[in-house]
Known about the structure:
The protein has a 16-stranded mixed sheet that branches. An eight-stranded mixed sheet has the order 17-18-22-19-23-24-25-26, sandwiched between helices. A two-stranded antiparallel sheet has the order 20-21. The termini are far apart. The chain has eleven helices and 26 strands. β5 (80-89) and β6 (92-101) form a beta hairpin. It has helices spanning 138-143, 291-301, 326-341, 359-369, 386-401, 405-424, 433-439, 442-449, 452-456, 477-489, 528-541, and strands at 26-32, 35-47, 50-59, 65-74, 80-89, 92-101, 104-111, 114-121, 127-128, 152-158, 161-177, 180-193, 196-204, 210-215, 220-224, 232-235, 242-249, 252-259, 268-274, 285-286, 289-290, 305-309, 346-356, 375-379, 463-468, 495-500. It has 547 residues and is of the alpha+beta class.
Amino acid sequence: MLFLALPAASVVAQGTTATPAAPAAVGYTIFLRGVPIGHQDVTVRSDAQGLVISGQGQIAEPIDVITRRAELKYRPDQTAESLTVEARIGGVDIKLQTTFENGTAVSRGMQGTSPIATTDMVSPQSVLLPNVFFGSHAVLARRLAGAAPGTEFRAFLGPGAQVAFRLRSEVTEQMQFGTSTFDVHHYELVFDNAGTPLAVHLYADNVGTLVRVGVPAQYLDVVRDDIAGSISRTRVTSNPGDEAVIIPAPGFNLGATITRPAAAAGRLPAVVLIGGVESDDRDGTAFGVPILANLAAGISQAGFLAVRYDKRGYGQSGGRRESATISDLSDDLRAIVKWLSDRKDVDAKRIVVLGHGEGAWLALLAASRDRRIGGVISVDAPSTTGAELALEQQQHALDRLKATPAERQQKIDLQKKIQAAVLSGKGWEDVPPDLRKQADTPWTQSVLSFDPARVIEDVRQPMLFLHAELDRQIPVTHVERLVDLARKESKSKSVEVVTVRGVNHLLVPAVTGEADEYASLGELNVSKDVTGAIQAWLTKAFPAPRR
Length: 547
């Protein structure tokens, strides 16, 4: 917890006032894909002169930042007063001093051997969010308290860099720490990232201090040290019949939640759910929609036991992600299937795996290798290789940004160079070093090289392919190819397809389905048309055994 300096309450000899104790520094651990890569110490001081947030720390590659000193000052009326940064980014030293007055930000300093001398017009109420210091978000933990959803803000990131963002939603949730819980305020923010919405999740406790900041799209989490262990998680969504469990996997444990049917009796059929790249947490929350938690609720209503879990290295799950591949995460899914098949309350002959987005690849791969899996539900799955999907998604994004032909070709050429280098291990000299640090990983290599066509041919189990008609991340044309492959190439005798009209990739009602619509969605629960289709297939394909 962040401690504020309290005004002196006693008088010492000679009538002098006692000096307030200095506020204590609080540590935050920075995680990338669930792996700790850095640490920052943050101090917050609030008094009659205003608010001061300061700190220092270090983050390893691929971010590669050493923050020797950061200090952010706000006046009593919450307007920015000054920003001071002394840091090293990617081996380049930076010294920056920015002062704020009358709607202007005057910056002076040095970046390597280059001088910094800029003047920016800024909103007086701008928050300061320098990207070298995550502790700067402590001001938002205070500023957001009492703000209404839809409230818009401006952030000053540094000389020449500003961004708009708005409060998407605010809910009170429970943070689970071991067996105890405490309330936290969960603020979902949506930043305008060059025309593409970027979701940022900020958690604060009841006295307005920063607990956690997460950027799911970048696999980045900044967590206060006292809750940074894998024994803690935010309980985002709770269904009737939910029970937290720990499931053994080779070398570590997986944190999971079981959702039991209301009238559970005898040996139950079961479904294991796994999400895509949007979220690593067991609820599959993306842009405020708890996709997997909602699906688990619907599945339990059909009489099936549902299991959802934190991916390895995230939340309450152990293991490390820096060397993990698609095959490794599929093995985690198989470990849960084995755990279920050994339970006395589960019908081992009726265990189904469900994957959403790229999570469907994990489900299909697990089914192709494990006969304990009785069926597969593929939701919004890609039908092409990961490399082809990445280029398809990039082209769609460029179309939305209305890039010029030259800009488009430049970005496409760079993307192709990166993918070729990842897949071949050659050609990295043509890729900027910072991009190589992000892309040259076992995970990226496994995703780009994955081809569902090679996996489907080994799947024998019944399969349901469900796709959202308005999915723009993985367009509905993908399901047509997957179903064609499954019917022609797989060993399955039962392949069904359902296209759900009027819903997007998040499985909620939408108008266009585009990602820039996510921030303004009115409904944040999975469509009943989706859960209904899954319930119907499950009860048909896996009926209760005759007594």
